[in-house]
Design a protein that fits this description.
Low-confidence stretches: 11-17
Strand content: under 5%
Structural class: mainly alpha
Helix content: 55-70%
Oligomer: single chain
Distance between the termini: 27 Å
Radius of gyration: 19 Å
Shape: elongated
Largest sheet: none
Length: about 220
């Protein structure tokens, strides 16, 4: 089973249109990365209320995660949606995750796939991986292993560890691609070296049974 993910907004830094807004966002970003979420909120909320999409998305992440505010999925969805409707690919990906998981909205796989698709059109790697998972499992879209592989590969080639792990599994199981243990090992290894626990476990399995590598 694939594992869907949403983007941690605090790992992302983007320039805003106005220099003052960019400076305020950077102050909030530094505070959030240091664990000072109240200062982050003080700097981001005014920007979000002024319509800055990156601040709206960051505020959504804080409500989703309960960082500096009470956890509130509905409020997270509200902020993600405001940013997503402005074309923010990270917010689109995160909004897709909320629909997929039924957080703050009724679970709706088709709506999740719609938002993921908008994000992947901008090259958002995590959305590519999540859309691949939708095709693998047939949630919100017709089940299609070849299409799943296509989206996993796009994300994996951008270095997204979970997509690399999932692509390895597609090769190991011969789903959407010819079965190829050596190729499975290659993708598992790339993900495992980034700390992906499932890929590490699967890579251990391949060594245990000598699949794609000498048995060891």
């Amino acid at each position: 089973m694939f594992r869907s993910i949403r983007v941690a907004a605090f790992a992302i830094c983007a320039a805003l249109a106005a220099p003052v807004a960019a400076q305020d966002f950077e102050i909030g970003l530094a505070a959030a990365q240091a664990g000072d979420y109240l200062t982050a909120l003080e700097n981001w909320r005014p920007l979000a209320e002024q319509g800055e999409s990156i601040a709206q998305g960051a505020l959504g992440f804080m409500y989703e995660s309960g960082l500096g505010v009470p956890q509130d999925y509905a409020e997270a969805v509200r902020w993600y949606r405001l940013a997503a409707e402005q074309g923010d690919s990270i917010a689109q990906s995160n909004l897709g995750f909320m629909y997929q998981s039924g957080r703050g909205v009724s679970q709706d796989y088709a709506e999740a796939a719609r938002w993921y698709r908008l994000a992947v059109e901008q090259g958002e790697a995590r959305a590519q991986g999540n859309l691949g998972g939708m095709y693998e499992s047939g949630l919100g879209v017709p089940q299609d292993y070849a299409e799943a592989v296509r989206w996993y590969r796009l994300a994996a080639e951008q270095g997204e560890a979970r997509a690399q792990s999932n692509l390895g599994s597609m090769y190991a199981n011969g789903q959407g691609v010819p079965q190829d243990d050596a190729e499975a090992v290659r993708w598992y290894r790339l993900a495992a070296e980034q700390g992906d626990a499932v890929a590490q476990s699967n890579l251990g399995f391949m060594y245990d049974f000598g699949r794609g590598v000498p048995q060891d």
